[in-house]
Amino acid sequence: MKNLPHDLLLHIFELSLPLMKTRAAVQTCILIKGWNHLWPYFSGLDFDLSEFNTRDPEQDEQKFFHFVTRMLECHRAAKVNKFRLSCVNFCKKKYALTIEKWIMYALQHQVKVLELTVCSGIRNLITQCIAASNSLEELHLHLNECGRHDRILSMPDVSINSHTLQKLHLHIPGMMCGDLFTNLISGCPLLKDLWLESVTVLSSAIIRSENLEHLTFKNCKLTGRYETETKKINLPRLHKLSFLGGNILCHCILELISGCPLLEDLWVESLDMQFEFIISLEKLQNLTFKNCKCWKISIEAPSLVSFYFVGPVATGIFDLKLGSLSSFTTANSSLRHSGSESYILNYNLEGLSYAKHLELCAYKVAANLQSPPYHLTLYNLQSLSFCGHCFKYIFAMCKDMPNLEKITLWPNCQHSLWFPKSIKWDDALFGLLIRCKKLKEVEVVAARFIDQEKQLDGLCKIKMSKINCHIQEIL
């Protein structure tokens, strides 16, 4: 293999570089005979301070400093495709200028993907990276806050202007003024993916982008109002919008949504929404609420194909309204409640009348088991999954599902599926098969049964058809 041409050998070796950092790659080249000439020509550079991990932090910093400096001095590749630098604790002022030189080296060598995890003392990195490069396509910037968290990131003298940047991920503890947020978007016309984490956006930012497709806020705080009437929000090509925790008011979310006419995927997670959440989007296909405290949700989305809800709800009564959702014919809909308590649901689910697949998880009925808290007529339903329900409730639900073919029963982490003492477990499951004419299979996953006649005691997985009952697996 050592007799292969230099370019071919380098290409073969670089295929394995994503699996190792630069230091390990250099060591590998030196140890293997015939490869010691390859390491100065790497097009991907990955420097991580955590690799230099001994009991002496001072010595680790010096070794890291000398290794990166020496590596860049000996580097001979014309271009750097990817440059990653992670030195979170490398915060001494004497290294700040050197770190900037390392970053500038990558920018001057037409880097396409730049990932930086550094101390937040270098505050102009955003504009410095974008302004100094005419080749940068992806920028991942994670600033480790070493001082106060209330610093305001404002616009430096250098303007933001990039006609190549398509992906921007920023994790910046602190507050970002509206002008900087506005210029980040407007100064990068080809930007398709924007991820903001731990950022507080001050004042009413103008959010306009012709090409932005994915927008994510993680643990962020949005202040002010974003008025669509004055065209401050215009994201005509946005397909996916995510809110992952943080402090974002309900009206901010709704105002952002209203400026996204082609939105297809909306993910809302770990937010406290104390007002009615009204969604009306013609193109919306996937909608997820995870660990949100919701009072009332109204959905009008004629193209919706997947609705997923994970609790807990704010009160014992949670009102969910779905419009006429004809596209649910091929949908997987899921209503989950992740809390340990049980709630009586009171909602209107006519929109699920077209569903073929439905999952209900961890909702138990604390009132009259013969009268479910809601009534569903699911003529199109083919598969139904229950978790944490008592058997009487399952039995009552199935009477209005004439086309049901499969039922899956599985307990949650706190409860096992239980049957009334007067009903044997095999008779109960067989009763379901008789009640639903098209039902072919009942599957019970990790349910606890005690049957002395069949000497069955413990958790098991069971499949039952109209012909036989088969215990698949004892767990």
Automatic annotation (TrEMBL):
Transmembrane segments: none
PANTHER family: OS06G0556300 PROTEIN, OS11G0201299 PROTEIN
InterPro entries to which the protein is assigned, alphabetical: F-box_SCFL_complex_component, LRR_dom_sf
Identification of the protein by name: F-box domain-containing protein
Organism whose genome encodes this protein: Rhynchospora pubera
